[in-house]
Amino acid sequence: MTAEGVDAAALARLGGIAGTAPSLLVTARRASVLHLAAPGPHGVRLTLPDGLTVERLRLLADPAAGDAAPVPPGTSVEPLAADSGAGASVILAKVARLLPATLAAPCPVPALDAADWARARDLTAVAAEDVLAHHETAARALRPVGEARVPLEGAEDTRVVAFRPVDGGIEHLAIVIGRPDPAGPVLARIHSECFTGDLLGSLRCDCGEQLRGAIQAIAAEGAGVLLYLAQEGRGIGLVNKLRAYSLQDGGLDTVEANEQLGFDDDERIYSPAAEILRHLGFERVRLMTNNPRKVSALARHRLEVVERVPHTFPANAYNLGYLRAKARRSGHLF
Ligand SMILES: Nc1nc2c(ncn2[C@@H]2O[C@H](COP(=O)(O)OP(=O)(O)OP(=O)(O)O)[C@@H](O)[C@H]2O)c(=O)[nH]1
Ligand SMILES: [Zn+2]
């Protein structure tokens, strides 16, 4: 069960099905916030000496519930293995854009008919390895599923091509301006969705300017592609980004806020971007970005970044601290 969704009845039900008291699973980031020594890279399982209550697990998992509660004395703290079902449950919570914390209780499931066992209890059985492979499986399954001409202000010769995994799931968009030549390096922007910046014109970040600036710059050159990736909030989702904003209003920087919530500073993956570029026939790009991690991520996915094209816009009173934190903490080049 996800820590975020649980109430007292659900907690009792899980304990009843398992026959043991549930443990709380948190990421290594959240474990550090809770001052747990050497939690290991894949998170920890916390088993409290006198069991979990909803209030206690909220204080351990959710910074909005209050300052991180000290872990009670006598709590067993076990590092999670990379390929464990427990670790997979935390990844599943991330995929659902919830807080990355779950409740787990080993259940006496008969090995051969786990699905039947689960169905009889109104549960869903999911194999840990499927969850662990989810991001890569979804990226490999991306296909163009719809496209249309969408003339944009200042870039009238534009097509929007939507990509989606064959078995459903979240869409990413390719905005193809002009007729980029697959033989040459294509001018490209890989833009991570930002509802507040892109749509509302938020001044907390530079996303809106980067989005419109990229379209203008590509149109000025005559051709190129902008990928609009569904990974809001550096991959933590819009709701968690709003939570992170609220923590930043309390004095944390953008990286610390992510960590309080249990996330890495940047949870994005770039295999979907690489798959889409390859699908469109592009293997060499001139990438408009200030983020060196994007350049190395594309290279890891066998796309050649022949040039990094700086993509900077003037700061304002609200985003100055954010831009400075990105430079200082995450190595962005301004
Ligand atoms: N978690 C989190 N995400 C944020 C925050 N501010 C903006 N974002 C998200 O960050 C993403 C944009 O990433 P940035 O780090 O600004 O820039 P970048 O894409 O890495 O680098 P550039 O290519 O140079 O723009 C968008 O998905 C935004 O929603 C924040 O304070 N916390
Ligand atoms: Zn933004």
From TrEMBL:
Organism lineage string: Bacteria, Pseudomonadati, Pseudomonadota, Alphaproteobacteria, Rhodospirillales
Amino acids binding Zn(2+): 194, 205, 207
Protein name: GTP cyclohydrolase-2
SUPFAM superfamilies for the chain: RibA-like
CC cofactor: Zn(2+)
Catalytic activity field: GTP + 4 H2O = 2,5-diamino-6-hydroxy-4-(5-phosphoribosylamino)-pyrimidine + formate + 2 phosphate + 3 H(+)
Cofactor binding comment, as recorded: Binds 1 zinc ion per subunit.
InterPro entries recorded: GTP_cyclohydro_II, RibA, RibA-like_sf
